[in-house]
Design a protein that fits this description.
about 45% helix; elongated; about 800 residues; alpha+beta
Length: about 800
């Protein structure tokens, strides 16, 4: 950049030469001066034409801006609906409670006149109306009444189509649709447009959301996208009673459209002085046009630290004819007359004249920047809530989940946090602590397990009592800094606690504990928006805790009931040793359908029973108990195994009639009677639709103990037969359920052939060893994740008769 003195000297030289020439040729060149003035007028006319053109462009840009603002309002309205539905689901305990509020929220915000929620009944193969809503000022009672009592099969009507396809379906006018059975009543009630959305969870359609309008409406892609998210939220609530939402505004598109809306027109000459300052520029910068004209542009609107850069760029352009910012839009900081600064977008164009002129089209983008920031914060918030929801629903072990959760919320919501759960004695126990600083994480974990005496913690006590989240500017009490435990006070002091938020963990109307979020060394000052986000997170965490608690209680009940349906230990049967194995499928929260039993039926007679009832859960447990105790009672009256199972068949059929004539309650059973023989034991077996027991002889031969008969509980006169064989020293009798033979690895099935081949390797084993090998093979085949229960009983005749050989208990 040339020194200022050189620039000034050069300018003075030009002026002296020009003045000398002007004085010498003043009279001769008067006509030329007149001509020059006329050319200047032409240039000004051209400039005015360009300004008019740019004004027209600004008008179009403003129209686009208004359209974009409307799009943004629509997006904000949809986002508001998602937040409202998330809050409704978090506050509700059942879908029946939440459904009408969800429908009202969507319809009220988006202008739909009626709506319904349909829930799938896969067993019956129909959709049933679960809830309806209508605009109270409209007379659509007939349509709502008809909707409430209908059922739809897959593919039939709007709900059935959505159920079958798993995709949203939009009908511009149901009156003219050929697959809408309610078309006549819709026409009478003045309803036309309709749209259905699937409620989907992991690819399964659980139900359908349906909305109606009195207008004929074209498909709205943004609505379809939004309702897909709402459908997922509702599906998650059906399974685990919680939900999350997502932001759909396209920042790139809105940014591109807003960037073309320029308001101010400011022109300067080759010396950097203002020659045009339109009314928009007056309003934006705070200068009157008369005050701005003739002033240096740099001193008016450019911050002091950028002025030399601006002046240098102008000199370079005059020397080289090139400019780095010409004919492109850039963002920079501008300055008003009062010295305040604000972001602008500017496009600078060089006017083709001599000397050159420059026009800048400038737009204040303060509101846009604020909107962008709001969108970013909203996306961060929704992304965080989605991540938190996914983590909280990833497991039903709330201790594990809350430990992960405690580390997720930092540093987004605090430098460190603590999760305290309310115990039965009314005090809080700290179950999870997370810290954003890895170096302090181990220190924070020392607070785990601490019991918090609410007589000392007034703030926490008040939050538990009121159920309302609070901001604690002095968070020492919230953090436990006032604890009577000196070690805990020392830990809290080391972690630091400038301020805090305390959020109750409330689910289904019950307060389960509190979440404390702490700002320690950071410059964070919590706001109402932070507290609102923390409350959303707290609701999700509370639902996860409550679901885990219910799951734990359900698992305990299921396991207790399962144990009650199996013998606590196996009896000692003289001359043989017996072993049993039982492995329940799933996570242990449902009672399985497999069962077995061993009991004495006479002085020297014993019965061995193994079976499988249809279904799982409470009904399966009831059927198992009925089968087991009926067989025990029948065995006291009948000697033949086939007669015992016939009596069981009669009992099941009688029980089905008592409960429900359409109730199919059946089971498969293998029953074996064991008696002593001269060189071992004599067994008599029968099978009621159950895999037949297998016999492995001491010499390696495999035999079947009987033939397969009819299922028990289906026919009035089942086909059952008895077969008697003797087991000698070294022989094995194996009874099992189909959880062994029907074990799957992908499309491959374990099968009876594999079982037979496996049994040939069990020669010389006792009952416990053989049972263990069969169970292990079935589990390994399925990578330790069985789809069905496994029950195995093995009877072994030792090489020598050892009276009172102890039986191996269930494994």
């Amino acid at each position: 950049m040339p020194p200022v003195e050189e620039i000034l000297e050069r300018r003075l030289d030009r002026e002296r030469r020009a003045r000398k020439q002007a004085e010498a040729l003043l009279e001769e060149k008067s006509r030329e001066l007149f001509k020059a003035n006329r050319e200047l007028q032409y240039a000004m006319a051209e400039l005015e034409a360009r300004v008019a053109q740019r004004t027209a462009e600004l008008s179009e840009a403003n129209r686009q801006l208004l359209a974009e603002i409307e799009d943004r309002r629509r997006g904000e309205r949809q986002l508001s609906i998602q937040h409202a539905i998330g809050r409704i689901l978090a506050e509700s305990t059942t879908l029946a409670e939440a459904a009408p509020r969800i429908l009202e929220s969507v319809c009220g915000n988006l202008g739909w006149d009626a709506a319904s929620i349909w829930i799938a009944d896969p067993v019956a193969g129909v959709l049933r109306c679960h809830a309806t809503w209508r605009d109270p000022i409209l007379n659509v009672d007939e349509f709502i009444e008809v909707t409430g009592r209908l059922e739809f099969a897959a593919g039939v009507g709007l709900p059935g189509r959505v159920w079958a396809s798993g995709l949203p379906t939009w009908i511009p006018d149901v009156v003219s649709d050929d697959n809408f059975p309610r078309a006549p009543v819709a026409a009478r009630n003045g309803l036309h447009a309709a749209v259905g959305f699937p409620i989907v969870l992991r690819g399964n359609v659980l139900g359908v959301l349906e909305f109606f309008s009195r207008k004929i409406r074209s498909p709205d892609e943004s609505l379809i996208t939004m309702m897909g998210t709402i459908g997922t939220q509702i599906a998650q609530f059906i399974e685990s009673s919680e939900a999350a939402a997502a932001l759909r505004e396209s920042h790139a598109r809105s940014r591109a459209m807003l960037s073309s809306a320029l308001d101010c027109v400011v022109s300067m000459d080759h010396e950097g002085r203002v020659i045009e300052f339109n009314p928009a520029a007056e309003r934006t910068f705070g200068y009157a046009r008369s005050d701005a004209i003739g002033k240096e542009l740099a001193t008016l609107i450019i911050p002091p630290e950028r002025r030399d850069e601006h002046r240098g760029a102008l000199v370079r352009y005059l020397d080289t004819g090139t400019g780095a910012i010409l004919d492109q839009r850039i963002e920079m900081e501008a300055m008003r007359a009062d010295g305040s600064r604000f972001p602008v977008e500017i496009a600078v164009t060089a006017v083709d004249s001599s000397p050159p002129l420059f026009t800048g089209f400038i737009r204040d983008i303060t509101e846009e920047k604020a909107a962008e920031q709001a969108v970013r914060e909203s996306r961060e918030r929704l992304s965080f809530l989605a991540e938190a929801s996914a983590l909280l629903s990833s497991s039903l072990n709330y201790q594990t989940v809350l430990e992960r959760f405690a580390n997720l919320v930092v540093p987004t919501l605090g430098d460190w946090c603590a999760v305290d759960v309310l115990e039965d004695d009314g005090n809080l126990q700290r179950v999870a602590v997370g810290h954003a600083d890895a170096a302090k994480r181990e220190v924070a974990r020392k607070l785990n397990g601490a019991r918090i005496d609410l007589t000392e913690g007034h703030l926490l006590r008040d939050v538990l009592a009121s159920g309302e989240a609070v901001l604690a500017p002095d968070g020492n009490e919230a953090c436990g800094g006032n604890s009577p435990d000196p070690e805990q006070r020392e830990i809290v002091a080391e972690l630091g606690c400038r301020n805090a938020m305390v959020v109750p963990l409330v689910a289904r109307g019950r307060t389960l504990g509190v979440l404390t979020l702490v700002a320690s060394t950071s410059a964070r000052d919590y706001t109402a928006a932070d507290l609102s986000l923390a409350e959303d997170v707290g609701r999700r965490a509370a639902l996860a805790v409550d679901n885990a608690r219910l799951y734990r209680e359900r698992t305990y009940v299921a396991r207790t009931l399962q144990r009650s349906l199996l013998p606590p230990h196996l009896p000692n049967i003289p001359g043989i040793d017996v072993a049993a194995r039982y492995h329940a499928a799933g996570e242990g929260n449902e009672v399985g359908g497999d069962f077995y039993d061993l009991f004495r039926t006479g002085k020297e007679d014993w019965a061995i029973l193994i079976g499988d009832v249809c279904g799982k859960g409470a009904d399966a447990a009831a059927l198992t108990a009925l089968a087991r105790y009926t067989v025990r009672a029948a065995a006291m009256q009948a000697r033949k195994p086939s007669r015992v199972l016939a009596m069981l068949n009669e009992a099941l059929l009688a029980n089905a009639v008592t409960r429900d004539s359409m109730d199919q309650r059946f089971c498969t059973v293998a029953y074996t009677r064991v008696r002593p023989a001269e060189n071992g034991v004599r067994i008599t077996s029968t099978s009621g639709g159950h895999p037949v027991p297998l016999v492995l002889r001491a010499d390696g031969r495999l035999e079947t103990a009987c033939k397969v008969g009819t299922l028990i509980g289906v026919l009035a006169h089942p086909t059952l037969s008895d077969e008697t064989i003797e087991l000698g020293p070294g022989d094995l009798l194996v009874l099992y359920t189909d959880g062994v033979t029907e074990a799957r690895a992908g499309a491959d099935v374990f099968g009876e052939d594999r079982l037979r081949e496996l049994l040939t390797t069990c020669g010389g084993m006792d009952a416990g060893q053989a049972a263990e090998r069969i169970e292990r093979a079935a589990l390994d085949f399925q990578s330790g994740q069985p789809r069905d229960d496994i029950a195995i009983i093995v009877v072994h005749v030792p090489e020598r008769d050892l009276p009172g050989v102890p039986a191996a208990g269930p494994g």
